[in-house]
From TrEMBL:
This is Sugar-binding domain-containing protein. It comes from the Bacteria. InterPro entries: Beta-gal/glucu_dom_sf, DUF4982, Galactose-bd-like_sf, GH, GH2_Domain-Containing, Glyco_hydro2_dom5, Glyco_hydro_2, Glyco_hydro_2_AS. Residues 628-685 form the DUF4982 domain. Belongs to the glycosyl hydrolase 2 family. Residues 193-296 form the Glycoside hydrolase family 2 immunoglobulin-like beta-sandwich domain.
């Protein structure tokens, strides 16, 4: 009995020790604060009151974009640039309780982004306003909270003054929100800054600055411990110091460490470490804070371009806007991962965050997946581009917005350039000199480890006052690819990048038979001979008047060693800016991938040039009229030649000549099979076939993954295709497909990628466009498998199941 008692005592001691260790690991409490908000469109200033009746308000989970739920209407104040979707004013409100034992803690709320003009109230007290819709911000709630009792937080969002953007912004609390509770002695907000002054594969030095906040009424002595762990959570370096801090103050402390034989971060191997900062008061852990760390070194050179870790590396970049297609501006890590995965598989190794701060999820995934980032702060300075844009807030807010932007993002190893502006109007007058110098000085006061750039449009030196400031470390130029050859002479000794390029136009799956490169329109406001259905040919033959085709641009960049690389406008279509067409076109034509996430044909040109994948892609489809002459294009790599066959008969072999990026044949249509065979040294590399499709016979459903989590956030994208009886895609299918989702999921978006589709993204049906559409399903929290059922007139229903874990 005594023996058993001793064993029980030991078990109890072990359990208590485990609980103590667990509690110590949880010194900083970070809670998801997205659920159970009430929302209502309109202006309700009385909603700040604790006793306000919100029973008729909608209950929802953040992140939320109310604009994407509205109807496309040419009379909406947002107009063409923002996709003709509604904006306006709205309020969010949440009742919540914080534990009584938080009374001696510092409790804050963190918003990753609210578009726009937000004001936050806690229990009737205003915490502050934030005009900028892309900036992350937070407030200390501590002095206003009722601990152990109900509290009310209310958020006013005012996106009514329109137009205020040149692209779709969304409206509302469209990014994530957290509640953070820490001891009074803690690491401050964005309170760490890690740099690597010396990097090699033998050893690397790490310099850490930690801002410690002491909210106590008395001074404190504390122990500051830094630990660096690798991706397996094995500690590889540590340092500790004893420090003092005064009452009600913030102080910066520094630690220096060394890591032996570090693994270097690169797009091919994005190896990440973590810096774990712990604060101990006596022996008690009072805070723990994690910072990402990647070891890499890079340089821009005026003659040799860009190198990473000593390896010459061309920047294969794409520009991305922040919207997630049918989800609108709603930020969801699964949507971002899908977007970046498509870019990665294409061969892209870099992302430009156009033209504003992007989400934490985007930054984290660029670290994890291996993308070089150009992080961009502003689209306008003091001079406006549209009536109600950021120029109105410039004087009061640009300094704080820029400082917060740098502080939030400066620890991400993927970030290798700070862009202080895009196509800024001050480029053309002398005020640009002073503002460029001011902004660069702000950036350098917070981070000297990365170059400062700006996306310029003017390459005549006398007209470009941003360049004349002499403050930029790296010159970014937008478009005018034909002038690049003169840059080494014109901008002697300068480091140069194509910060934005191409602006070619395509609609997925639509093919106009032409041999002519066209600009639609040829100049601003000029008439052009477009298509009656608001489509643009998916052959790489149509461009904006200021831009280039994909091939024209890439041939230029590829041949100029001094060019560090290029950022294509754009990786994906985005809502708004539907140049060249007016309403009903409501989303862009610029993407390499359409708005639904379905690649256009030019995707495979980049894949053949930028990736290590072996590629053979032929276009277009093979459903035409008898004897119609069709241009057949092939993108290929890792081969000497491609031979084309029609119904078994050879139509000849072709090879890329000089700087060609594709080969082509003119073929009179006859039904059957078009087959391409690529060969190297006479041996077959790849074969691809396209078949003439017959009548629509089956709805095919393909989910991107087989299982999702029941966490109310996880997404699964299902591609819907119309097939004939032999499994061929029916390329002209435009059938209306109805959807029913049951079990542990809900339908949150549908899209077919057609830029002039005015149907809502939020309905339970979607017309196929050129044979395809996409359905987005989100976890609803139930532990039940999801079933998607798709039906259309005259065909048997199709069903797909997705497991829920």
């Amino acid at each position: 009995m005594i023996k058993h008692k001793n064993i029980l005592q030991k078990i109890t001691i072990v359990l208590l020790f485990s609980v103590s260790i667990f509690a110590q690991k949880q010194a900083r409490i970070v809670e998801d604060f997205n659920k159970n908000w009430n929302f209502k469109l309109g202006d309700y200033p009385e909603a700040i009151n604790v006793n306000f009746n919100a029973s008729d308000w909608r209950t929802l989970q953040l992140a939320h974009d109310w604009s994407i739920e509205g109807a496309f209407d040419k009379d909406n104040k947002t107009k063409q640039a923002q996709g003709f979707l509604p904006a306006g004013k709205a309020w969010y409100r949440k009742v919540f309780t914080v534990p009584s034992n938080w009374k001696n803690k510092t409790v804050s709320i963190e918003f990753d982004g609210v578009f726009k003009n937000s004001e936050v109230f806690i229990n009737g007290k205003s915490l502050g306003i934030r005009p900028n819709g892309y900036i992350s911000f937070g407030y200390d709630l501590s002095q206003y909270l009722n601990f152990g009792k109900e509290n009310v937080i209310a958020v006013k969002v005012d996106n009514d003054a329109q137009p205020n953007s040149r692209w779709y912004t969304g409206s509302g609390i469209y990014r994530n929100v957290r509640l953070v509770a820490s001891e009074k002695l803690h690491v401050g907000k964005w309170g760490t800054f890690v740099t690597t002054p010396e990097v090699s594969t033998e050893k690397s030095k790490v310099h850490l600055e930690v801002t410690v906040d002491n909210d106590n009424a008395s001074s404190k002595e504390f122990k500051l411990v830094t630990s660096i762990v690798n991706s397996d959570n094995v500690e590889v370096a540590n340092f500790a110091s004893t420090e003092k801090i005064g009452a009600k103050t913030s102080e910066k402390k520094t630690h220096n460490l060394e890591v032996k034989q570090p693994k270097l971060w690169s797009p091919e191997n994005p190896y990440l470490y973590k810096v774990i900062t712990k604060v101990y008061e006596k022996s008690k852990l009072v805070d723990n804070y994690e910072t990402p760390l990647g070891f890499r070194y890079f340089s821009f050179d005026s003659e040799k371009g860009f190198s990473l870790n000593g390896v010459p590396t061309k920047i294969y970049g794409v520009c991305l806007h922040h919207d997630n297609g049918a989800l609108g501006a709603v930020e969801n890590i699964h949507a971002v991962r899908r977007k970046l995965t498509l870019m990665k598989e294409m061969g892209a190794n870099a992302i430009r965050m156009s033209h504003n701060p992007h989400s934490l999820e985007m930054m984290q995934l660029c670290d994890e997946m291996g993308f070089i980032v150009q992080d961009e702060a502003f689209d306008v300075w003091k001079k406006k581009k549209v009536t109600n844009d950021y120029h109105k807030d410039w004087d009061a807010w640009h300094k704080q917005d820029l400082e917060d932007f740098i502080k939030r993002d400066r620890n991400y190893p993927s970030v290798m350039m700070w862009s202080i502006g895009n196509e800024i109007r001050e480029q053309f007058d002398s005020t640009g000199i002073a503002i460029t110098r001011e902004l660069t000085k702000i950036v350098k006061s917070l981070d000297t480890t990365r170059p400062v750039t700006s996306a310029l449009t003017e390459n005549v030196i006398e007209k470009n006052f941003i360049y004349q400031s002499g403050a930029l470390d790296l010159l970014g130029f937008n478009y005018k690819h034909e002038d690049y050859k003169d840059f080494p002479t014109k901008f002697k000794g300068q480091k140069i990048l194509a910060s934005e390029s191409v602006s070619a136009l395509e609609t997925r799956g639509h093919y106009d038979q032409s041999d002519v490169i066209k600009a639609w329109p040829t100049k601003y406001g000029a008439p052009f001979d477009g298509n009656a259905d608001w489509t643009v040919s998916a052959y790489d033959q149509v461009k904006s008047y200021w831009g280039a085709t994909h091939e024209e641009n890439w041939k230029t960049i590829k041949s100029q060693d001094f060019m560090a690389g290029t950022f294509i406008w754009t990786g994906f279509d985005y809502i708004g800016e539907p140049d060249p067409y007016p309403f009903p076109a409501r989303s862009s034509y610029f993407g390499i991938v359409d708005l639904a996430g379905l690649p256009k044909d030019v995707y495979y040109m980049y894949q053949s040039e930028w990736s290590k994948k072996t590629v053979l892609h032929i276009l277009p489809h093979w459903n035409w009229t008898k004897d119609q002459e069709i241009n057949i294009w092939a993108y290929y790599n890792n081969a000497d030649e491609v031979e084309l066959f029609l119904n078994g008969k050879s139509l000849g072999k072709k090879s890329k000549q000089n700087d060609d990026l594709h080969i082509s044949w003119k073929v009179k249509f006859e039904p059957g099979t078009l087959k391409a065979v690529s060969r190297k040294n006479g041996k077959v590399v790849l074969e691809k076939e396209i078949h003439t499709a017959g009548e629509a016979s089956k709805i095919d459903l393909k989910a991107e993954k087989t299982a999702i989590k029941n966490d109310t956030y996880d997404l699964v994208y299902v591609t819907v295709s119309m097939l004939d009886k032999d499994g061929n895609l029916v390329p002209n299918a435009m059938d209306l497909i109805n959807f029913e989702v049951t079990g542990g999921g809900k339908l949150v978006g549908v899209d077919n990628g057609y830029q002039a589709n005015l149907e809502s993204f939020k309905v339970n049906s979607c017309k196929l466009f050129n044979g395809k559409c996409v359905v987005i399903i989100q976890s609803n929290g139930k532990k039940e498998n999801i079933q998607l059922k798709a039906t259309t007139a005259g065909l048997q229903a199709s069903v797909i199941d997705v497991k829920v874990n």
